[in-house]
Amino acid sequence: MKPLYERPDTLTHCLTHYCAGCGHGIVHRLLAEVIDELGIRGRTIGAAPVGCAVLAHQYLKVDMCEPAHGRTPEAIAAIKRVRPECVAFSYQGDGDLAAIGTAETLHVANRGEPITVFFVNNAVYGMTGGQMAPTTMLAQKTTTTPVGRNAGYHGHPMRVCELLATLDGPAYIERVALSSPDRIRDAKRAVRKGFLTQIERNAYALVEFLSPCPTYWRMSPLDALRFIEEEMTKIYPLGVFRDWETREA
Q: Of the four listed, 10, 24, 166, 193, which is most buried by Cβ atoms within 10 Å?
């Protein structure tokens, strides 16, 4: 009997360093599956910064680099310019992409650099101890907002897809979630579209994943998935914000 699922060739065989219930492992699997299906492993280059994704190179059998915190989009854009035949992607969390790397995120997208950005949004700084991130929601408790994020003091959550959709450079922007099998299937479709936007259109793409962080949300993995569906999607609605095929913007 043929197995329903097998390990993708691009996914390494190693123990995970991620916490139980973390969404990063799911995204790694999706990236590996799509890279295999598109047959692009030999010419794919990725970049992952400081953060929970700092060891992404251990899980994906592609060339990887580790730029300084926040500099990831510019670093991978530079690689793409030097090696335009390669498929170049960045793999970033919300702290890296929307805080210390905000300027790089905006300007790379505004220039329409032909890279693919995979943005894992778990609404918190995971690696450094669960502090408030730019995407932390109002009233959400973190180690630096123990009574909840307050708009008047801490500002409002940053909606990256909506922000980048105001720019002319991006060709494809979509937000997906990792909270159920159906959602994960949609996420894989978005990963494929993100890569194809670069390969077929030589254009910029960003895919945002609403991802669970049970450890710093102080929840069980199952409750974290419910939290995405019941709370996060209210603040971060799922869907396409820019699509070169349908001209949605």
A: 24
Q: Helix, strand, or coil here: 242?
A: strand
User: Could you read off the pLDDT of 119-153 as tens digits, one per residue?
Assistant: 999 999 887 777 889 999 999 999 999 999 999 99
User: What is the residue type of 51?
Assistant: G
Question: d(Cα 143, Cα 150) in Å, to the nearest integer?
Answer: 14
Whole-model pTM over 0.70: yes
SS3 of residue 244 by DSSP: coil
Q: pLDDT tens, 7-26? A: 999 999 988 989 999 999 99
Contacts of residue 58, defined as CB under 8 A and 6 or more positions apart, other chains included, come to 12, 14, 17
**Which two tokens mark 7?**
């390990």
What CATH number should be reported for the domain whose range is 24-243?
3.40.50.970
Domain residue ranges in the chain? 24-243
**CA–CA distance, 141 with 146 (Å, rounded to integer):** 5
- Distance between CA atoms of 208 and 176, rounded to whole angstroms? 6
Read off the amino acid at residue 94. D
Asked if residues 95 and 62 have their Cβ atoms less than 8 Å apart, the reply is: no
- Per the structure block, which two tokens stand in for 177? 């979630």
**Look-up of token digits 């099998």:** 181
Tokens 């190179």, located at residue: 57
Q: Which residues contact 108 (CB under 8 A, 6 or more apart)?
A: 73, 74, 77, 115, 204
List pLDDT tens digits, range 30-77.
Answer: 999 999 999 999 999 999 988 888 888 899 999 999 998 889 999 999
Compute the distance between CA of residue 29 and CA of residue 240 in angstroms, rounded to an integer: 22
